[in-house]
Amino acid sequence: MITPTALFAFDTLLTEEEREIRNTVRRVCDREIRPHVAEWFETGELPARELARTLGSLGVLGMHLEGYGCAGMGAVSYGLACLELEAADSGLRSLVSVQGSLAMYAIWKYGSEEQKQEWLPAMAAGERIGCFGLTEPDFGSDPAGMRTTAKREGGDWVLNGTKMWITNGSVSDVAVVWARTDEGVRGFLVPAGTPGFTVNDVKHKISLRASVTSELVLDGVRLPDAALLPGARGLSGPLGCLNEARFGIVFGAMGAALDCLETAIAYAGDREVFARPLASYQLTQEKLADMALELGKGLLLAVHLGRLKEAGTITPEQVSAGKLNNVREALEIARKCRTLLGASGITLEYPVIRHAVNLESVLTYEGTSEIHSLVLGKALTGIAAFH
Ligand code: TGC
Ligand code: FAD
Q: Which cofactor does this sequence's record say it needs (predicted)?
């Protein structure tokens, strides 16, 4: 027998340091996350503060950023960490993506020196949590339509509007909020507790239950000019952050798929149907072979994109290709594995249905599959079909 990753000699694509990082993250997930994650999912309650500190000591928060207490690791190492976290649960990878690739990255890339010193070391350590408010109730795929405004009043800014579906919202110490100004879209750092800033959690989720999702309400929130991110002007500011988080998902989705496939292979070996192991039937083996192929192709694509990112040549369209393919295939793998587990596949005793419903969110956030198809369509034809 051979594991799905060994089939593709996946480890030969990685350096010793990358394998070591992957193994360390896996060990911490096995010890600190996997024993509890089904319960967090079932109750819809995540010990986010505690987890942030665990993940901070592990060094994965903003691990691909340089300086300010961040580990400065390569893109593939970051991707492998996302893979291991998402093999535990997409909600955990979300916490890390939003903290490191959206909130911290926005401050690291566009922030003033004072903002970086104030927030980044504490966020890398997991002592402070951040969120990223781009989506609004009426503008998800089309953030250019945002209604949240920031107006200058004397030396201050006053923000009004609502952000929706914001990961880490109610557990955050700081929200990176994108708003329309007379100078186009600008980013602001809104500390928790600022008068006029309230946060309400989204309840009754069936997907990504081991993750905090919130609404951010800004009602006359007054901020000093020092809260403005000086380096971001226009929609390219927030969209530049999305490239970072989407890249992590290219690897992360394959982690969820791998966990499903390994579970299904073990189950099919143990489960007897019609007096023989489920694994011994040709229909089962075809399913397993097809899933291993898609998993292997997705992993190869992820490492290829990681090497392009490390070389500094990756394009947003290539990130879209990876996000579109790997999330779509991960979801197919999760659904197919669910069929192999029969009725057992619908319980939280196994991780498969949890991954499957989580991946429905992953398919939608960070750009829906339709938006990424349109990004590729535009790249291939030169015609933008979004509008
Ligand atoms: P468009 O006119 O094409 O572009 C406006 C400006 O932005 C630039 N740009 C990008 N820059 C960097 N990276 C990218 N990927 C970029 N895409 C576009 C573009 O060059 C232009 O710059 P400039 O200087 O000329 O002004 O914009 P559009 O309004 O036509 O929209 C394009 C579209 C639809 C692709 C974009 O709006 C989009 O990506 N929509 C999807 C929105 C989205 O993904 N939201 C995610 C919110 S965050 C989230 O979901 C977190 S989930 C939690 C977790 O990660 O775990
Ligand atoms: P819509 O944009 O209304 O799309 C509805 C449908 O229309 C989709 O199928 C879409 O693909 C399709 N569609 C849209 N435009 C077109 C078009 N031009 N052509 C064809 N079809 C189209 N956002 C943040 O800012 N920060 C976060 O931290 C964050 N976390 C999230 C966590 C979770 C669990 C979820 C579910 C979402 C999160 N989001 C976050 C929001 C996420 O980015 C949006 O849900 C996503 O961008 C889609 O927006 P929407 O839900 O408004 O769908």
A: FAD
